[in-house]
Amino acid sequence: MSIPVNPALIPPGPTGAPGIAGVPRTSRVGDQSRTGPEFAQVLRESATQAPARTSQPVTFSGHALQRIERRGITMDADTQQRLGNGVDRAASKGSRAAVVLIDQNAFVVGVPSRTVITAVGREHMKEHVFTNIDSAVIA
Fold first, then answer.
1. Residues of the domain holding 18
2. Stated pTM of the model
């Protein structure tokens, strides 16, 4: 049994034989034939030249700011850095809503928007239930 072949789908002219040393890969674009680096080479070069990613700062909703102030949660530079790193880790796993635990505090974060929705201190942790989250990060 032979499979019918549509001649319109067969590229015109030689395209070089992949895997044979010394024979460059070519592709036809319109009426021009181009020779270029292989995909793997371009990928390796771009990976080594990629700039270091810096995360965007985490923002706080009005509700979260009220909770932080009312509950006496300290937001120093170290805590903010750890919170940002926790959100980065949650984002890298595809999280949409996470609770980030830092020391004795919990921050519920909308990961795509990098916005803290609410904050809970240790004294309120026992009576609090976290809902609508898909991940937890210990930062």
1. 7-49
2. 0.61
